[in-house]
Structures are given as structure tokens and as C-alpha cells.
Write a structure and sequence with these properties.
The protein is mainly α and about 400 residues long. The chain is built from 14 helices and no strands.
Length: about 400
């Protein structure tokens, strides 16, 4: 379904979403990396914040994102034949499979990852990538039920969690991102706003001394993948009009930059670790969402991904395949130009070839709903419906 009505177009333009992270300049040459300025206010924004008392969510001191996309971005420079009949058929079958995976309480996920707020959020976002909104569109009911499930599991502390598995901050990050996208398109829903504000406050309050986050909502250690989820969530919330302290983003950006290795990829934690392409893809995408478009860290990260993860090249390890491509396609979309032209048809055709006869995609670790949701989000990038993919 195409988002053609003026009302939905306005709603889709109201928020930007999916955000996360900034990379490290080489410490070996002792370059001092300044904090991110992408969310800093200009003098005119400061004056407006000081005089405009009708905008309680954007007071003086809150950061303003730079929403100007690079000229090469695929947003306004689509590649030839982005959407094919085979893609449309794969999405149709994927939607049918995903609908069959929704539980009676609105959640998604089975087995170890049953009733998982993060997987539920990703599944709803997959439907939203085709223009479905709560109560609107062929899959509007599925989105509405998923939203009710997430809201029902918003705790007084702000944590969004229902599953019994350890490490709820992954799910919290994806669920907060989902609420940010929903609220950006429907700011009249006070329930969503209240849950989103509490969720953001929990993220801000649990950032550790290094500038990152890890599995549990306590400010102890950190790893780059959980940190990415929180920064993406904060960016979506900020774009929807929720206050996010600039210093929280600056500290997270510094942490992520310090996680970049000399080969251009990213390690898991500051102390040790080699590069891996899934989290490296997330790092590059986050730099772009933070408003950094020309940077040595981006160039080195993109080159690392082309060497190690280009679909069909035979260079890619299969671990965290769907998670990695969920982020990599965003990075290449924002890089645009030759990167998008080479990456998009390769990942599109590879994902279509990996689709099972059931219509879904399977990850042996997280299950069918999670892998299918990420695959559908990737395949629907050219539709440019989700606020995160719009300027």
C-alpha cells in the first residue's frame, strides 16, 4: 500500500527516527576528537527556546538534530529498478507469515524470545514500512495490537520489558524507537508520550561512565551494540519532540568512536576485541543519523563493510546476518551514490533467495519473527515510508 493521502504524508514527515552512533579517530596519532555538534543548538534556536513557552519538550539546553541529508543520499537519488515484481511478491508473503506469528496478546516472538517487546517493536515497524499505522492500512490492526502490548509493559521505572530473558536493554532500545516513531506520527496519544518520556529518562539515567550501556538498566559496563540501540532510540524520541540532553549523546558518541579499530571496523567493548561487520554497519549508520556526513570514520567504516560484508561477494560471515543487514542497508542508503547502487540490488536479491517456503526468514538464534521483521524492513527501504528514512 502506498502512502498517498495528504494526511498520512504529513504524519510520515513528522518524525525522523532510527538513529545511532559515532566512530573513533585514531588514538595512535593522538588526535583529540571534539564532542558531536550535530545536536547543538544554533543561536537562533537558543533564542527561540528561550522565548517559546509553548514547546515544553524543547527547552533551552535541549539539542537540535541536523536533519540535512548528504547530497549523495539515496533519499532523493534512487538507484535504477529498486523495486521489482520479485521484491513485491517476497514482501507480500513475508507479511502473511509475520501476521501468523503474532500472539493473542499482540506480542511477537516464540520460545526463548517469547513475548519480547523488542521483537514486537521490530515486527510493527516492518508493517509500518509499508505505510500501515495503528488502525490504518491492511495491517493496521497488527500494528495497533503490538502498540497495546508495548504500552501494557511500560513500567513505573520507564523500562519497557515483558520477557523473562536476561538483558532487557536490547528490547528496551527497540521498543523505545518504536514508540518514538509512533509518537512522531501521532503526538495526540498521551499514553505513548508518557511511556516514551519515561523510557528516555531511563536510558539517560543508566548511561555508564564510559558513555555507553549494556544488558541491564544499571550504569556499570557497556558494549557497542547495546549502546547503538539506545542512541537510535534517543534520536527517534528527540525527533518526535521529546527532550534529550545533548551531553548524553556527546558522551555516547565519544564512546562509540573509541570502539573503532584501525581496520575501520568496530570492536565489542573498549577493552578488547576484533572488528565485526554487523556492529560496524550499525556504527556507520549511527554516524549519519547523528548528522555527521563527511568524516574519516565513515569512509573507513564503509570501506570495511564493502570488503567484509557485500552480499554475494563470499566475504561475509553469517553470524548475526539479519541484524547486520538491518543496519548495513541504512548505512548504504545514507551513503548513497556507488555504495547504494552496488549494495541495494545485491542485498535485495540475496534476501529474496533466502526466503523460506513459509514466507518468512529464519534465524536459528532469535527465531522467525525477528529475522522476518528485519528482512522486511530491509526490502522496503526503497519505499521510503518510515519517518527515519525521510528528511
Amino acid at each position: 500500500m502506498r502512502c498517498k493521502s495528504a494526511e498520512i504524508t504529513i504524519r510520515c514527515k513528522a518524525a525522523l527516527g532510527f538513529c545511532c552512533m559515532m566512530m573513533a579517530l585514531a588514538l595512535s596519532i593522538n588526535v583529540i576528537v571534539p564532542p558531536s555538534t550535530a545536536w547543538a543548538q544554533s543561536p537562533s534556536q537558543q533564542e527561540q527556546a528561550a522565548t517559546n513557552q509553548s514547546a515544553p519538550d524543547t527547552p533551552a539546553g535541549a539539542s537540535e538534530p541536523d536533519d540535512t541529508r548528504p547530497p549523495s543520499s539515496a533519499e532523493n537519488n534512487p538507484a535504477a529498478n529498486e523495486i521489482t515484481p520479485a521484491l513485491n511478491e517476497a514482501v507480500r508473503k513475508g507479511f502473511a507469515y509475520l501476521r501468523s506469528q503474532q500472539n493473542s496478546d499482540g506480542s511477537f516472538g516464540r520460545g526463548r524470545y517469547g513475548r519480547h517487546v523488542g521483537i514486537t517493536a521490530l515486527c510493527a515497524l516492518a508493517f509500518m514500512a509499508d505505510g500501515n499505522l495503528p488502525g490504518r492500512g491492511e495491517y493496521g490492526e497488527e500494528v495497533a495490537k503490538a502498540l497495546e502490548f508495548v504500552l501494557a509493559h511500560s513500567t513505573e521505572t520507564g523500562l519497557l520489558a515483558a520477557e523473562a530473558t536476561h538483558g532487557p536493554m536490547y528490547g528496551h532500545g527497540f521498543a523505545t524507537l518504536f514508540l518514538g516513531e509512533i509518537y512522531g506520527m501521532n503526538p495526540q496519544d498521551r499514553r505513548v508520550r508518557d511511556a516514551l518520556v519515561r523510557a528516555v529518562e531511563l536510558i539517560v539515567g543508566t548511561q555508564n561512565d564510559e558513555g555507553g550501556w549494556r544488558y541491564n538498566p544499571v550504569p556499570y559496563d557497556a558494549d557497542v551494540s547495546v549502546t547503538i540501540c539506545q542512541v537510535m532510540a534517543l534520536r527517534s524520541a528527540r525527533n518526535a519532540g521529546i527532550k534529550v540532553p545533548k551531553q548524553t549523546i556527546d558522551r555516547a558518541v565519544e564512546y562509540i568512536r573509541r570502539c573503532q579499530n584501525p581496520d575501520g571496523g568496530f570492536k565489542y567493548m573498549l577493552q578488547t576485541g576484533g572488528s565485526a561487520w554487523p556492529r560496524s554497519a550499525a556504527a556507520v549508520a549511527t554516524l549519519y543519523y547523528a548528522g555527521i556526513y563527511e568524516d574519516d570514520s565513515i569512509d573507513r567504516g564503509l570501506q570495511y563493510l564493502m570488503r567484509n560484508a557485500l552480499p554475494g561477494s563470499g566475504a561475509m560471515a553469517q553470524a548475526h546476518y539479519y541484524y547486520g543487514h538491518y543496519y548495513a542497508v541504512q548505512a548504504m542508503y545514507l551513503a548513497g551514490g556507488e555504495y547504494w547502487e552496488r549494495w541495494w540490488p545485491a542485498v535485495r536479491d540475496e534476501l529474496i533467495a533466502r526466503q523460506s517456503s513459509s514466507g518468512g526468514w529464519l534465524d536459528n538464534h532469535t527465531g522467525g519473527a525477528d529475522a522476518t521483521a528485519m528482512s522486511l524492513i530491509v526490502l522496503q527501504m526503497p519505499k521510503r515510508y518510515l519517518p527515519i528514512f525521510q528528511r
